[in-house]
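Marked as duplicate of an earlier ticket. Keeping the data here for the record.
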Amino acid sequence: MLDGIVEEHLERTDGGGGHAEDLLDVLLKIQKEGGLKFPIHMDAVKAIILDVFSAGSETTTTTIEWAISELINNPMAMQKATAEGYDVQRGTQVLVNAWALGRDERYWPDAPEEFRPERFEEEAAKADFGGGDFAFLPFGAGRRMCPGMAFGLAGVELPLASMLFHFDWKPPGPGSAELDMTETFGLTARRTDQLLLRPVLRVPIPGV
C-alpha cells in the first residue's frame, strides 16, 4: 500500500503542474534534493507515513475496542449508556437554553443571579467560559462557537480595567441610589435607561 502511495506522488511530481504539497511531497523533495547532514532513505519516508496513518487510525480503533471491552465487563454501565437520554427525531432543531444553564443552582449555588465576579477568578472558577464547560456558554461551544471570543475579551477587559484603575465612578446625583437595571431587547440586551455616571480621578492618565 505504501509503495503505491509513494509511486503516485512521484509520478505527480515528475509530471509537473501546480498542486498543493503534502507531507509526503515534502519528504520526497528533501530526499531528492539532499542538503541535510544525513540522508533520508525511502524506508525512513515510509516509516514516517506509516506512523501518520497509525496515529490517525490505529489509536482510534484500539480505544473503541477497549471501551467496548469495559462495557461488556460492566453490564450496568452498558445499560445506563443505552437507556438514558432522549429520542430526537431526524430533522429536529435542538436549541440550548444558555439562559437557564447560567441560572441553574446545581451549577451556581448560593444566589446564581447575584453579581459576584470572584466566581470567575482562577482558583475559585466554577466554569470555563471558553466553551469547555456547558454550565456557562456566553460564547457558545464547539465548531460554531463565537470566532471573535479573543477579540471580544480584549475589547472588554482592557477598557474596563483602565476605567476602574484611573477613576472612581459614582452616580451623577447626590446619594447612592441603586441603578435601574432594566434591559431592552434588541441586537444586544442594552440598558433601558442611558447610563450617566460621574468619574472621579484616582490615578492620572500619562500624557492626558
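See parent ticket for discussion. The longest strand covers residues 167-170.
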